[in-house]
Amino acid sequence: MSQPQNTSNVAPAPDVEVVFYEGSPKLRGELGLVFKCVASALVILAIGVALFAYTNSYAWLSLAIGILLAILVLILPLMLVRKNRYKISNYRIDYEQGLFSKRIDTIELWHVDDVQMRQGVLDRMLGVGTINVHSNDATNPVLPLRSLPEPRKLYDAIKQRVIAVKRQRGVVKFDGGVAHDTGGQDMGDHHHAAM
Hints:
alpha+beta; 4-stranded mixed β-sheet; 4 helices
């Protein structure tokens, strides 16, 4: 029978979760969708006005339906952006989807294989970008975190934390049958910014 060991002088591992970002993608990062919806709303409204002007029966109804549909199409981008929510912390990334019913997926940072950042010219002017998280997670092998504010800051924070968490857990990467300590070397700098 073994006796319990004295662990009173062993400090527990710090288990404080620090949140780097929590929120939905920014609407300013989805301008293409906004422009498409505005154009669609104008077409729907024009059809409603034309039906109102050129028909005698149900003229007010056609105008009311046209206005209602145009309003719905205009709020569509806001609803589509708000259906996604991210929580990026020093240990994990939670990805929440859904407006009415919710689904939350979590990627632990020690499962992350690579991190990439993409930011086009317009994204740079608007201060948003996309971070792609590549992992060995079966449900989300590539998780795009779209339209994030200050993407370079988040990209650097995620990259640094992935390296630190892997070192903390002693994660070893296998390439071609040879085991070696990654030491953060698998986290190449994949910052893609359009010039």
